[in-house]
Amino acid sequence: MIPLRLIIHNFRAIEHADIDLSAVTLAAIAGRNGAGKSSAFTLSPRFALFGDVIKGISLDDLVRRGAQEMSVTFVFEHQGSVYRVIRTRSTKGKGKSTLELQQQVNGAWESRSAEKITDTEAKIRALLNLDDETFTASSMILQGQANAFTGATAGKRKEILSQILGLNVYEELQERARQRAASLNIEIEKAKDRILALDERLSVRPAKENELRVAEDQHSVTLDMIAEDEMVVKTVEAQIAAIDGKRARIQQIEREVSELSKEIAALRAEKNEQLGRKERAAKILANEAAIMEKSAELDQIKRQLATLEARKPELDRLQRDLTVTQADLYQLEDDLLRLGDRITVLQRQLAGRETLRQQAEVHEAETQRLREFEEKADRWNRLEAELRTLEAQRDREEALMKLDEQRLNDRIAELERQKAHIHDSGCLPTCKFQRAAAAAVADLPALRDQLEQLDWSSLVKLTANIAAVAADQVNLGYDYAAHQACKDKVNELREAATVYAQLAGKDELLQQLEQQQQEKSARLTAGEQRRNALQQQVDELEADLAPLPELAAKAADIDRWARLKDQISAARETVANTQERIAAIDREIAGKEERQDEYVHEHEALVLETLEFDSLREKLFAVQELLQQRRRHLSALAEQIGGIKAMLAALDADQQERDRLAAELEPKSVRWTRYQSLIKAFGRDGIPALIIENAVPQLERIANEILGQMSKGKHYIRFETQRELKSKDGVAETLDIMIGDWTSERPYETFSGGEQLRIDYAIRFALAELLAQRAGSKVEWLTIDEGLGSQDAEHRALVLESIKSVSSRFKRVLVITHIEDAQAAFDQVIRFDNADGGVEVQVA
């Protein structure tokens, strides 16, 4: 892989940079700290190819602060073709990423991307045959990581070399081989167990085959016996069927006889009915004259009823009018009573007007006095509340002052007792009790002064305030009993005052009520006259309609005779018809009775012919029961034979399975042996050990070529892969670095910093070249990030010369440095300069 171009937009600190590397071979990368040198030449290619490659930093954190869109375009040559990778990131919304892989064909870009980003990344890894870790290790020496290999312990070096050589794949292969071997071993053991179980099951096969032959013989004999029983059953069933036909005829005869009996009974009932009709018709004909007379009388009564019925609506109307008139009279009487009561009340109220006026005046005067009493009561209550508050405050102040006075008096009395103790105890002045008592006595004057200086002025002031408030309360002149008496008087006169206030409009109201009373009295007189007239008309009409119920009853009684008038002609015809029908019924009854006798004789003969039916049924049941038993036995034998055959079929399948398992067992055992060989081959002492043993001399050779160029042949490198154990016989796996010159060899750790750096670079360059060769995808590009800062001027010059001397091994060598004299050592310089808040890249 050879880089050709980098186009960077809003990536980390870089706003925009377009870096053309097509003409660059060996160049220094210069610019101030933070300008984006490392971001451009170490991070942006890795981001474009492999995506999220910086641990602890999300893709959104790679977008330049203040921007929302970021992109990196990386153009490179690989295996004779030119490719372009474009990766973008947007922080808008939930965030979005894109990735495009393109190949240049005949001067135009053609897409080689997949539908998904992950699939496109897989295509890039397959194209380069590299992942991010291998790509970084083979093309970059990152800042502070030049001695990542040499500065590690011997065991860690061997582990790093194994990782660089990709030997961890053999651990995965060994684990897969172990899993396959374990799976095969389980299958082999399961097959063995299955074969043993199948052998045990197959041991019963001869006994089951003999059991099958016996059951089949019994089955054949039982079939013959069943055939004989079925013939007997058919014979008996034929006999029973013949008798069943006769029994069916008996039942049919019984039904016919029963039907005839019903028909005869129906004919006799019809005859009785015809006789009754004939008798009723004869009676009608016998009373023909009376029926005609009653019919004429009914017509006359109906005419009278029609005349009277025509007058009934008039009676109903008069009764309704009378009812309405009476209701109106009742209402007028009630209204007059209420008006009279109201007029009486108003007259009584107006008669006591002067007395009410006097009472209203007294009420107004007492109301004014009550307002004055309530104002005084309100002021008196406020003074009373203030007086209670001052008295409570005085009691608290007095209690506090007395408490302080009591406390001081008690302390003074106690000190006076101690003072008396000083004189009476006889203790020496140096006694601690004497000293304590003396100190206490010294406080007596101060305590007496405090007692005399107690301030009682606030208490005196409160007492004066209480007296002043009490005097104001007395001067107010409030009389509670007079206040209550006035309030009672106002309540007593309130109703009279209210009535008097309402008398103003009651004169006019009295006149209106008296006028209404006269009008309603006139209406009442007129209503009474109308009621009397209506009542007279109703009485006269009711007298005219009085015969109506009697005529209706008489008409109803005669009506049953009149209805017979229409039946006279029908009665004559009925008499003639019923005589003919009665004669026909007698003839039909005689014929049916004759047929009934014939059926009875046939029935008796058939009963004699079916007497053996029960014995044949018993015989049939017995034969059928025996046949069922033999069929059940046959079914059991068939089931037994089927079970034996199913078991033999299962044993056949078991035999086939055993043969298959036995045939599969040998190749599985062979495969298991092969996997065991693979497990050993993929182990540390197998193929990985051989690869390391082969890779170390190659690494040593490449490193010595590079170190020889750097040191002008002064130093060489030798790797020791084994070390003798001191505590016991044997060797230990290691990877020590021994550095030699013309005189001797000594460990890498004993050399100075500058010399170690040259050795670091030599081994690091060798590892990069070895890795690229073994990856099968040579990366002809090397980036060194800030690897010169720890060197003095002399050693820095040596390192620069060493870098130049190995540059021929790579198509592109880029050295990122901020040291100006180091930058001057290179013919080509890629300079990062600030321009308008971004970075301007100049390739010179």
Give an overview of the whole structure:
With 844 residues, the protein is α/β, with parallel strands linked by helices. Among the domains are: 1-130 and 781-793 and 812-821 and 831-844, 3-Layer(aba) Sandwich (Rossmann fold), CATH 3.40.50; 362-478. Helices cover 71% and strands 12% of the residues. The protein is built from 21 helices and 15 strands. It has helices spanning 37-50, 59-62, 117-128, 132-139, 154-164, 168-202, 205-286, 288-351, 353-425, 432-441, 444-452, 457-475, 480-502, 506-544, 548-563, 568-609, 613-682, 687-711, 753-775, 793-806, 820-824, and strands at 2-11, 14-20, 26-31, 69-78, 81-90, 96-105, 108-111, 140-141, 716-724, 731-740, 745-747, 781-785, 812-816, 828-835, 838-843. The strands form 3 sheets. A 6-stranded antiparallel beta sheet has the order 2-1-4-5-6-7. A 6-stranded mixed beta sheet has the order 8-12-13-3-14-15. Helix 20 (793-806) links the parallel strand 12 and strand 13. Helix 7 packs antiparallel against helix 16 (568-609) and helix 9 (353-425) packs across helix 10 (432-441). The protein starts with a strand and ends with a strand.
Topology, please?
Blueprint: E1 2-11, E2 14-20, E3 26-31, H1 37-50, H2 59-62, E4 69-78, E5 81-90, E6 96-105, E7 108-111, H3 117-128, H4 132-139, E8 140-141, H5 154-164, H6 168-202, H7 205-286, H8 288-351, H9 353-425, H10 432-441, H11 444-452, H12 457-475, H13 480-502, H14 506-544, H15 548-563, H16 568-609, H17 613-682, H18 687-711, E9 716-724, E10 731-740, E11 745-747, H19 753-775, E12 781-785, H20 793-806, E13 812-816, H21 820-824, E14 828-835, E15 838-843
Parallel strand pairs: 3-13, 3-14, 8-12, 12-13
Antiparallel strand pairs: 1-2, 1-4, 4-5, 5-6, 6-7, 9-10, 10-11, 14-15
